[in-house]
Amino acid sequence: MGQRKSGHVTLLDIARTSGFSVSTVSIVLSEAPLSQNVAVTTREHIRTIAQQLGYHPDAYARSLRRRTTQTIGVLAFDLSDPFCTPILRGIQGGLRSAGYLPLIVDAQAQRKLFDSSLHMILERRADGVIVIASWVFEETNLLGDVKKNNVPVVIIGRDLSARGIDSILVDNEMGGAIAARHLKDLGHKRIAVIRGPQEMVDSEPRWAGIQQVAAEVGLQIDPSLVLQLPGLADPASGFEGGLGIAKKMLACGRSFTAVIAFDDLTALGVVRGLAEAGVRVPQDCSVMGFDDVLPAEVATPSITTIRQPLKEMGCEAAERVVQAIRRGPGKPERDHLHMPCPELVVRMSTAGPPDGHGTTSQVAEKLPALKGLDFSRAAKRKE
What we know:
Layout: H1 11-18, H2 22-29, H3 40-53, H4 59-66, E1 71-76, H5 84-97, E2 101-106, H6 111-123, E3 128-132, H7 141-148, E4 153-156, E5 166-168, H8 172-185, E6 191-195, H9 203-217, E7 226-228, H10 237-251, E8 258-260, H11 264-276, E9 286-291, H12 294-298, E10 304-307, H13 310-327, E11 337-338, E12 343-345, H14 361-366, H15 377-382
Parallel strand pairs: 1-2, 1-3, 3-4, 4-5, 5-11, 6-7, 6-8, 8-9, 9-10
Antiparallel strand pairs: 10-12
Helix pairs in contact: 1-2, 1-3, 5-13, 8-9, 10-11
């Protein structure tokens, strides 16, 4: 067997080594109907040579013939966000079982990089596109341009169904309601709420769900204990925001026995801020998150949270984009919006109020010691 110079093994290499024509080799290895006309010994010989040489079919050449790349562009707005990891696993699993290769691109929370990455995905003739919107995603007209080119698009984390784009996002209002009801059922009456940044479209429906439950059960939420995260520079800054806001809530002098944080990283920041002030979680104050990302599960205390079915959402996105490809342009489509239900995951960070009556005597006793704390630490860290 001759030594090849370089490059991938080709049909020509197998033909030269086996002694048969390129067309015969191609017919056999592609398992075309005409391969049945080739002698069994010849077929076995060609396949043995191909295996020995380490041959793999040329997917690029095949895509030119079939006018399909069997590739799906997966554009994540920020892969550093732990929200993305289980979604990606779901997408990869769904696409792999359907015979598609995910082309994963990280926009690093930069709008220009997002736009250029989407252009590159289209230039490589991806059969479909899945966008993981994450937390700072802004709507872009480029997605509309993708639809105009008859390339199926699915977006996770935003609702663009009004623009004819398949959208998958959790029922945030239901999630907010579940969080509030859990704390109410534990006996909490003084609940602080940390809302998401103004640009976060998830924040308003979660707050609406909390308010709905409060109205139903006669729970009064002190407006001075409803705070909002500042605009975030990256996912980790949610932790810094939770840390700073926890100390501000303690310093304001208003009693509370529980905190509903916008997401898990914010909840972890709240736990840190309370701990540094000597407030124990959950003995003195309960803390809830949202999303159920890995850090919430492995932290001490582990965080009670509202679980988004992130892996399942990734699987759903893969299924939807593959079905749209197989359906072809101009065919009837099903509902564009899919809203999976969130669920409560109870862990170590929530318990009943300190004295069983919803008071905050333990927290209140610590307030005088908080006057000398440096509440600018979170800001200094950002600098």
